[in-house]
Amino acid sequence: MTGFVLGVDLGTGGPRVALAGTDGVLVGHAKEPVDLRLLPGGGAEQDPDHWWRAIVTASRRLRARHPQQYAQVTAICMSSQWGGLVPVDAAGRHVHPALTWMDARGRRWSEEVTGGGVRVPGGYNARALRHWLSRTGGVPTRTGKDPVGQAAWLRRERPEADAAAVFLLDVPEYLTMRLTGRAVAGWDTAVLRWCTDNRDPSDVRWDAALARRCGLDVGRLPELVRPGTVVGTALPAVALELGLPGGVRVVAGTGDTTAAAVGAGATADFDAHLYVGTSAWLSCHVPYKRTDIVHNIASLPSVVPDRYWVATVQDVAGKAVDWLLDSVVYAQDGMLDAAPRPADALERLNALAAAAPPGCNGVVFTPWLNGERTPVDDPHVRGGWFNVSLSTTRADLARSVFEGIALNARWMLEAVERFTRRGRPEAVERFTRRGRPEAVERFTRRGRPETFSSLRFIGGGASSALWCQTMADVLGMPVRQVADPVVANARGAALIAAIGVGALDWADVPSRVEVAATFVPDPAVRAVHDRQYAAFRDIYRRTHGLYARHNAAGAIAER
After folding, report:
1. Which residues have a Cβ under 8 Å from the Cβ of 155 and sit 6 or more positions away?
2. What are the CA-CA distances from residue 73 to residues 245, 303, 412, 439, 490 (Å)?
3. 100: number of CA atoms within 13 Å, CB side?
4. How far is the C-alpha of 32 from the C-alpha of 52, rounded, in Å?
5. Angle 495-33-86 from CA coordinates, rounded to 5°
């Protein structure tokens, strides 16, 4: 096949649209920002129409730059932030602003849904927990930050909008419906409602009993489809808006985490990648379903056929850098007659941070500015600087933010490496019973490494050489900087589009993604980072109870 494809990735900060050949070679990309509204009580909303206008704007800009190739686009796939809620009517029009993955206003009702009866540590009902884990591999968070808690909040606090909603969609599904008019969900994006049976990654389906547990009506959920497959063609009006030719095929939308793995070229079993953008995650594909509820890690159905991916999330990563720039360095609060944040603010911050030594003269930054999810699911913990003295410089503070995010990634890495060392014996029995010897062999293969040999690094954080070297030094392993790391998610969506229309095969993906540079750990700074990491872990151990008391719902409401 010849032609071109579009990959769209809608992050919390806005969409990036990538144009690529059906051979996977990137032609160009464009981005456009969107706003995020943070509301009292843990609300985090966005306007879906703003998303769409930004996608249209970026697409038209890309078309103006590459008119000949854009005119030959044959397929499109949308990747996006997920774990949110977009209530829509029968035509796909939203009836309430989108609740993003950061929205925690449903916490009260998430606790009701998951609690009661005989409870295990953490507050979950023991019987319900067993049911969830046996079918889905995961469980609704008690923080309210998933579609279960968000749907309950909508039902209780916005009953008019809930009554007007025909479908309750996650963000990738909303974008697919906007393109095609169909309310469909790939198995990979449906799972965060925690009411799909994921025991066989090649045959995922809604579980009515689990849906009732979650307070969800299956009739209001999208139709399930196989990930990475064509679900329709772009509506004529939509094609006109985007400047696309007629008949462009639409491949089922996917989450940014799964698209990122594809865009990083990390589709083989146990080939790990690290993403640092607004949030961060560390993941790889595995051939088995498993759950570590203590560290908030589960393997969930992937866009890659017959595979699971290891689900993790560091709640705040690059967003901490934005916070530093917008709320500390270039804050528009009248304190100083400073100019607005300049276009090269990140470059200036990198240069400032590089002026401080590794270890930041003992200063430790904890990036828990919005709580944490992996390896602890803790909505109350908060971030800050530790060990600041009169001799601390602004360079120390700046570098410590970079290193603090890396220290948290090391904490997450340790949990993921423990998770991937072995699978659950019942999975071997299940594959044996189903007559799938190849799956049994993959599951039980010998020689599986105790640790990852290297990590592919993508996202905005990977565009900084300082951050790449810091990650290598703090994590203690080679970090492979993927070429064009900020485009990884959109490139992954484009590759999925090409695979969906038969132009590429899954086996082709690693060879289509170039590694720009490899950063090797510096043994001279290992002891410094080990000391900083020990302090980082100790800070959480000693303070998380204090944060829980200080940031309890009543105390927050009083402030």
Report:
1. 162, 215
2. 7, 22, 39, 37, 15
3. 25
4. 11
5. 75
- Residue 514 has phi, psi (to 5 degrees) of -90, 140
Segment 251-265, tens digit of pLDDT: 999 999 999 999 999
* Token output for 397: 């503070």
Whether the Cβ atoms of residue 486 and residue 475 lie closer than 8 Å to each other: no
- Pairing status of strand 73-80 against strand 249-255: parallel
Give the integer Cα–Cα distance in Å for 149 and 412: 25
Nearest by Cα to 473 from 517, 526, 530: 526
β-pair type (308-311, 297-301) = antiparallel
Query: Which residue type does 136 have?
Result: T
The angle subtended at Cα 58 by Cα 57 and Cα 60, nearest 5°, is: 65
Which of these, 5, 7, 100, 3, lies nearest to 50 by C-alpha position? 100
Q: Is the peptide bond before 375 cis (omega within 30 degrees of 0)?
A: yes
pLDDT tens digit sequence for 157-170: 999 999 999 999 99
Residue 432 in any domain: the answer is: yes
Band (510; pLDDT cuts 50, 70, 90):
very high
Give the whole-angstrom CA distance, residue 312 versus residue 169.
22
Overall pTM > 0.90: no
Hey, is 292 helix, strand or coil? Answer: strand
Range of the domain at 433: 427-451
CA dihedral (281, 298, 173, 166) positive or negative: negative
Are 265 and 272 in contact by the 8 Å Cβ rule? The answer is no
- Strand order, beta sheet including 455-458: 280-283, 273-276, 455-458, 479-482, 515-519
Q: How far apart are CA 63 and CA 498, in angstroms?
A: 19
On whether residue 446 sits in a domain, the answer given is yes
Q: What share of the chain is helix, strand, coil (3-state, %, to 5)?
A: 45, 20, 35
Q: Is there a domain that residue 510 lies in?
A: no
Give how many domains the chain has, as a whole number. Answer: 1
* Residue 254, domain member (yes or no): no
Tokens read off for 494: 């484009």
